[in-house]
Write a structure and sequence with these properties.
4 helices, two-stranded antiparallel ribbon, three-stranded antiparallel sheet, alpha+beta
Length: 160
């Protein structure tokens, strides 16, 4: 069951998929339609899942699931991963690679492989004040409070 993202409780489970490039307006429109259709059909053991999503900075797909009444099963999580893999293929984009870092350079969102980000930290090209995206947050409350933070407040701090 598709629910407005903002209406989901802060305890909702979150999955963040970061793209290695920005989506075009046309792609965003198509992705929103595909997300709506996927969530409307998303179930666990025959029960509807109460879920929503948002797309931020034209490159992050944030999927949220209210687990108050129904939790995701292994099969339903597999279905969501399969859906994201279909988006990767259709738009020739990486969404599941967790070994990459997104961070802000002014208003621009940059995307680098982790090893390049580490090198940039050593060279002081990024600092503890650089705004990074902590895609390891696990629920909507953490996402709202701790997703977009200075590197010093994230797992990225170990490289500074």
């Amino acid at each position: 069951m598709l629910v407005e993202f903002n209406a989901l409780p802060d305890s909702s489970r979150i999955w963040i998929f970061q793209a290695n490039r920005s989506f075009t307006e046309q792609e965003l429109q198509e992705i929103r339609q595909a997300m709506d259709a996927f969530i409307e059909e998303w179930t666990t053991h025959g029960s509807d899942l109460k879920a929503g999503y948002e797309i931020r900075y034209k490159r992050f797909i944030i999927l949220a699931l209210d687990q108050t009444n129904t939790s995701a099963s292994g099969c339903s999580i597999d279905a969501s991963v399969h859906f994201i893999q279909q988006l990767e293929k259709k738009y020739n984009v990486e969404l599941l690679d967790k070994m990459n870092v997104s961070y802000k350079q002014g208003e621009f969102v940059a995307y680098k492989p982790l090893n390049e980000f580490k090198k940039m930290a050593k060279q002081k090209a990024v600092s503890k004040n650089t705004i990074v995206f902590n895609n390891l947050v696990t629920n909507k409350g953490e996402y709202l409070e701790h997703w977009e933070v200075p590197a010093s407040e994230s797992w990225h701090s170990r490289f500074m």
